[in-house]
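Hallway conversation turned thread

IA: we were arguing at lunch whether anyone had actually written out HTH gntR-type domain-containing protein end to end. Turns out nobody had. So, for the record, here is the sequence (147 residues) and right after it the structure tokens. Reply here if something looks off.
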Amino acid sequence: MPPYLRIVNLIRTDISEGRLAPGDLLPSESELMRRHSVCRGTVRRAIAVLCRDGAIHTIHPEGSYVGSRSVPRRRLPRKYDLVAADLRQQIDSGRLPPGDRLPTEAELAKHYRVSQSTVQAAVALLRADHLVFTVLGRGVFVVDCRH
């Protein structure tokens, strides 16, 4: 049996036996690679099969969840969630008013003691919630909700 199908079957078994419940976050690609001693392409192929069959769905940059998109997601917050939540609170409280530029990725990474990719994921969440927008070459700005 090809390695990707072995992973598909193991994840399906975890779902059917209740070790993975609807809304649960699957292990990351890196974790699945480590567990099954396979390359990223093999893991991605397994995830694609499970997505195509409707057993899971993927939300970028979060990961893959058991069940359809309509199932409430259950997972522990990640660092980028915490950074986004803090920035969201600053926007809501007015400490980051409409039109203000957010600190640079490097400044935010240093302030929150996270990687720049974590900051990028946090900003992507804020952008998806229409709280910030990017002007290439100028930075990320708080949306003015009054307009």
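OS: looked through it. The chain has six helices and four strands.
IA: good, adding that to the notes. The first strand starts at residue 56 and ends at 59.
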